[in-house]
Design brief:
With 232 residues, this protein is an alpha/beta fold. The chain is built from 5 helices and 10 strands; from the N terminus they run αβββββββββαβααα. A hairpin with a 4-residue loop joins strand 1 and strand 2. The protein is elongated, with a radius of gyration of 24 Å.
């Protein structure tokens, strides 16, 4: 039997062609995790109003659903801002009910989920997550795709009538994110604005305090909020 030899260049070309075919074939879809739906492709949006304990679902701007919810208590508030559904899970445990819709809050693990404490719905009793009746979260879970925009309304520094809290290294939250953003805009902070008060934020704050002729203690006090133009 005659032996057939293939040039190395031909073998390499053959391998490349096969790789391309596999990459664009339906089989390839099973080899990689599904990507989240892009936010602009989702026709759904969610709005959460902590002061009203209400979650609104809209389709192309038109309200289609409204649900009562429980939100964070004063010491562990629900994070204000714009986020996206980045994960959907089932049966995380009794405390989270039958479904979980995770939010991409950069400083913690927050989501919309069910509860084994239905009496908390309509109150400020969670640790920052948004609780729903289990029957409601089951409905929401089936309705809402990954990539859906979630806007949580409110005053980022707390209720308008309340003073913002003092902040120091170790704290997390939307208020920390806002401080980082202001320090970054002023040229003091060159890290990632992620709502996590770490050593880099402390260092930037102390530089700001030095230039403002304040005590360099690395604590965000009422004077710091005022100096950064966040309160009057």
């Amino acid at each position: 039997m005659q032996t057939i030899y293939f040039p190395l260049r031909s073998i390499a070309f053959f391998i490349i062609i096969i790789s391309i075919i596999l990459a664009i074939s339906p089989i390839a879809a099973y080899a990689y995790p599904l990507r989240p739906i892009a936010a602009e492709q989702s026709i759904y949006t969610i709005e959460v109003y902590p002061q009203r304990n209400r979650l609104i679902v809209r389709v192309r701007g038109q309200q289609i659903k409204a649900y009562p919810v429980a939100v964070g208590n004063p010491s562990t508030p629900t994070p204000i801002g714009v986020y996206y559904i980045t994960y959907k899970g089932t049966d995380w445990g009794p405390s989270f009910g039958p479904r979980w819709l995770g939010l991409n809050v950069p400083w913690g693990n927050y989501g919309i989920h069910g509860t084994n404490k239905p009496y908390s719905i309509g109150q400020h009793m969670s640790h920052g997550c948004i609780r729903m009746f289990n029957r409601d979260v089951l409905e929401l879970y089936e309705m809402i795709p990954i990539g859906t925009k979630v806007t949580i309304y409110g005053h980022v520094l707390g209720a308008p009538k309340d003073s913002p809290r003092d902040l120091a290294e170790g704290d997390v939250g939307g208020d920390v994110l806002l401080i980082q953003s202001r320090l970054k805009s002023a040229g003091y902070f060159d890290g990632i604005c992620n709502g996590k008060f770490r050593a880099s934020t402390t260092s930037a704050l102390k530089k700001f305090q030095r230039d403002q002729r304040m005590i360099q203690d690395g604590v965000v006090s009422q004077h710091i909020y005022e100096a950064l133009g966040l309160i009057e």
